[in-house]
């Protein structure tokens, strides 16, 4: 420890006595000790900065600051999430001549203006290829320099006040997270389209359809969870009733020998006897009960059930699908894995936490003291913090069933000797042998079976969490409610979940609906339909490359006395919302001819009626000029030149 402190002190007191030309060399590398935390697990590694990649000498200010960080990281590891993107940005800056010159300077040669120019170059280099990683890297670089600049003798103090740099590139918005509702639901024709392809006649109707679809998908998952728990409960009752039924003594003896002693001849004798499948099932249940096979006091360390496939099929005869649980005949004594998963999944659709936080939930974190509700709070291993406390109405379908199941399963594991009475774990199962500690099921390995049994879309747990927060943001108070429910400290975190999902999905649906209508009109015109037909609403030309989607229903402020369009306010006040741009050769010719008309007649129009010119003609003129410029500079440039030549 003393040696590490000495290294750290040396770095703090570095002076730039070495000449600026002293190269670090190809072997000059700094390995900075870093750590990353993911779901309660710590990952240790080194982030290596190579002086040859940066092209700087030992006396450059950036290398001295990195040495300072290296010495500090030897005592306390730094967060690799910010260090790695910062290295990416520095290596990018090292390839730029202007930025590299600043990086290679000594502290005495560097002032606040140099640092400001360096930050500016980082922005310029990132414009064409910006990502969330580079965004974090630029931010981390600024923090790194400002927090350590006092350790070096810069020509002037380096701080945010003197550097006066304001980022111009906004932090990149994350790609909208996926929803369950982004998947097609082939089991329901009314909800078969993904949420981004819903059809509606208006934006308001579309928002209502989006809400209905998100709630429908959550409801389907919950109904499947309830069905699983109901199936398991009925199997449990059936097992108890069958076990209590009488059984011939000779069959019982043979079943004991076959199961407890694993005697093959006993199994062979059962095959020769006229024993029904139901009698065999009764025998299995009696042997498990009387031999205490499902407890820590089992008369055998392990056992196998004869005729297991046929017995399992008979056991499940009144249900729609069989569970895969290997110990399904012990369901009287604890919950099977499938119903434990169903309880887990149902709670997941209400709380919207990460699945690992639900697996961290313990019995003493379930509060049933409030009448008619259950309040639960767990632990977020990713951030080493508690989740928000969530209150769920016990009247919600399946909630009370799930809570009762978890508490009952824990009690039964304690009674059977597989769980210490002081343990508060809720997701344990019996071990595969009596010598082991209680086992825990992993939910991700059960999700595929669950979806297959109920014909659900192929979604993930992350989609469930996003769907819950998305639904809350739509129905219960917007992004703030989603933030509080999800336990996020900052709006930016919630933004990455739901902030741009609403607009992106709704815009997608609106664009698709518009495209469908536009396609129908194009097909109608292609087949010889008249442009002035009542069937044409999206393609009515305004004469300047734009179209009106509904001339008969203009916005009130753009209508005449009779309620129709006044045809003079298409481009005023930012443009009429009914205006659309649809470009073909005829529209390009309209733009060109209108441009010629305005160039030849704008003075006469202005002199005839200055007020009308300012209010109506000038916005139309400006729109037409801007559209023509866009066409000339864009993909339509060649077509504009060709049509213009044909007009002469």
If you had to describe this structure to a student in words, what would you say it looks like?
- This protein has 648 residues and is mostly helical.
- 52% of the residues lie in helices and 7% in strands.
- The protein has a 3-stranded mixed beta sheet. The protein has a 3-stranded antiparallel beta sheet with strand order 4-5-8, covered by helices on one side.
- A hairpin with a 2-residue loop joins strand 1 and strand 2.
- Helix 5 (97-103) runs antiparallel to helix 6 (112-126), helix 14 (337-351) packs parallel to helix 18 (461-475) and helix 19 (478-486) crosses helix 20.
- The chain starts with a helix and ends with a helix.
- Mean pLDDT is 77; it is low at 1-26.
Keywords:
24 helices, extended, disordered N terminus, 648 residues, mainly alpha, three-stranded antiparallel beta sheet
Would you identify the regions where 5 or more consecutive residues have pLDDT less than 50? 1-26
End-to-end distance: 86 Å
Whole-angstrom Rg: 36 Å
Mind describing the biggest β-sheet?
3 strands, mixed
Query: What's the pLDDT, averaged over the residues?
Result: 77
Strand order of the largest sheet: 2-1-3
How many β-strand stretches? 13
**Helical content (DSSP H or I, runs of 4+):** 40-55%
Q: Secondary-structure map with pairings?
A:
Blueprint: H1 2-12, E1 29-38, E2 41-50, H2 51-54, H3 61-73, E3 78-79, H4 80-94, H5 97-103, H6 112-126, H7 132-148, H8 160-163, H9 203-243, H10 249-260, H11 264-272, H12 277-290, H13 308-315, H14 337-351, H15 355-359, E4 366-367, E5 373-376, E6 379-380, E7 385-386, E8 390-393, H16 399-415, E9 428-429, E10 439-440, H17 444-454, H18 461-475, H19 478-486, H20 491-499, H21 501-526, E11 540-541, E12 546-548, E13 579-581, H22 585-608, H23 610-633, H24 637-647
Parallel strand pairs: 1-3
Antiparallel strand pairs: 1-2, 4-5, 5-8, 6-7, 9-10, 11-12, 12-13
Helix pairs in contact: 1-3, 4-7, 5-6, 6-7, 9-12, 9-14, 9-18, 10-11, 10-12, 12-13, 14-16, 14-18, 18-19, 19-20, 22-23, 22-24
């Amino acid at each position: 420890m003393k040696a590490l402190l000495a290294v750290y002190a040396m770095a703090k007191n570095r002076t730039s006595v070495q000449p600026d030309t002293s190269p670090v060399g190809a072997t000059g590398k700094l390995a900075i000790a870093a750590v990353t935390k993911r779901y309660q697990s710590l990952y240790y590694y080194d982030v290596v900065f190579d002086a040859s990649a940066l092209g700087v000498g030992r006396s450059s200010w950036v290398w001295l600051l990195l040495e300072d960080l290296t010495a500090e990281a030897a005592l306390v590891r730094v967060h690799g999430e910010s260090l790695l993107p910062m290295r990416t940005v520095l290596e990018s800056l090292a390839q730029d001549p202007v930025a590299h010159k600043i990086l290679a300077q000594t502290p005495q040669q560097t002032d606040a203006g140099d640092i400001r120019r360096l930050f500016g170059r980082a922005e310029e280099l990132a414009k064409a290829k910006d990502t969330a990683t580079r965004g974090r890297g630029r931010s981390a670089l600024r923090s790194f320099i400002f927090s350590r600049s006092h350790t070096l003798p810069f020509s002037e103090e380096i701080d945010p006040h003197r550097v006066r740099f304001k980022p111009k590139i906004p932090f990149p918005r994350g790609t909208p997270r996926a929803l369950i509702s982004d998947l097609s639901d082939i089991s329901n024709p009314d909800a078969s389209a993904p949420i981004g392809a819903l059809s509606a006649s208006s934006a308001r109707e579309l928002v209502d359809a989006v809400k209905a679809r998100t709630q429908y998908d959550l409801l389907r998952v919950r109904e499947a969870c309830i069905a699983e728990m109901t199936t398991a409960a009925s199997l449990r009752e059936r097992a108890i009733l069958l076990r209590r039924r009488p059984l011939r003594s000779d069959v019982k003896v043979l079943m004991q020998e076959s199961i407890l002693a694993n005697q093959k001849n006993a199994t062979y004798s059962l095959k020769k006897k006229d024993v029904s499948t139901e009698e065999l099932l009764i025998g299995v249940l009696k042997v498990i009960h009387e031999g205490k096979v499902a407890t820590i006091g089992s008369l055998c360390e392990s056992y196998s059930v004869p005729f297991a496939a046929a017995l399992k099929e008979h056991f499940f005869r009144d249900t729609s699908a069989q569970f895969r649980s290997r110990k399904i005949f012990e369901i009287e004594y604890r919950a099977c894995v499938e119903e434990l998963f169903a309880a887990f999944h149902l709670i997941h659709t209400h709380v919207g936490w990460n699945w690992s936080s639900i697996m961290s939930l313990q019995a003493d974190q379930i509060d049933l003291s409030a009448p008619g509700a259950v309040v639960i709070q767990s632990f977020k291993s990713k951030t080493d913090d508690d989740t928000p406390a969530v209150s769920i109405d016990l009247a919600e379908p399946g909630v009370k069933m799930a809570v009762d199941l978890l508490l009952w399963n824990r009690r039964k594991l304690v009674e059977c000797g597989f769980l210490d009475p002081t343990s508060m774990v809720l997701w344990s199962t019996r071990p595969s042998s009596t010598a082991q500690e209680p086992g825990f099921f992993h939910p991700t390995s059960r999700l595929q079976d669950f979806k297959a049994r109920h014909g659900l879309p192929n979604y993930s747990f992350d989609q469930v969490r996003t769907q819950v927060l998305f639904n809350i943001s739509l129905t219960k108070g917007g992004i703030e409610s989603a933030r509080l429910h999800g336990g996020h400290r900052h709006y930016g975190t919630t933004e990455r979940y739901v902030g741009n999902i609403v607009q992106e999905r709704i815009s997608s649906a609106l664009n698709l609906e518009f495209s469908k209508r536009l396609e129908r009109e194009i097909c109608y015109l292609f087949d010889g339909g008249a442009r002035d037909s009542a069937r044409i609403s999206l393609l009515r030309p305004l004469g300047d490359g734009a179209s009106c989607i509904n001339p008969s229903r203009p916005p009130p402020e753009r209508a005449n006395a009779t309620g129709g369009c006044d045809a003079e306010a298409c481009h005023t006040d930012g443009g009429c919302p009914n205006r659309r741009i649809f470009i073909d050769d005829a529209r390009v010719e309209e733009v060109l001819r209108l441009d010629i008309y305005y160039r030849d007649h704008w003075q006469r129009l202005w002199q005839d009626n200055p007020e009308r010119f300012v209010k109506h003609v000038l916005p139309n003129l400006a729109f037409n000029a801007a559209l023509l410029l866009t066409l000339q500079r864009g993909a339509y440039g060649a077509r504009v030149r060709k049509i213009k030549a044909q007009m002469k």
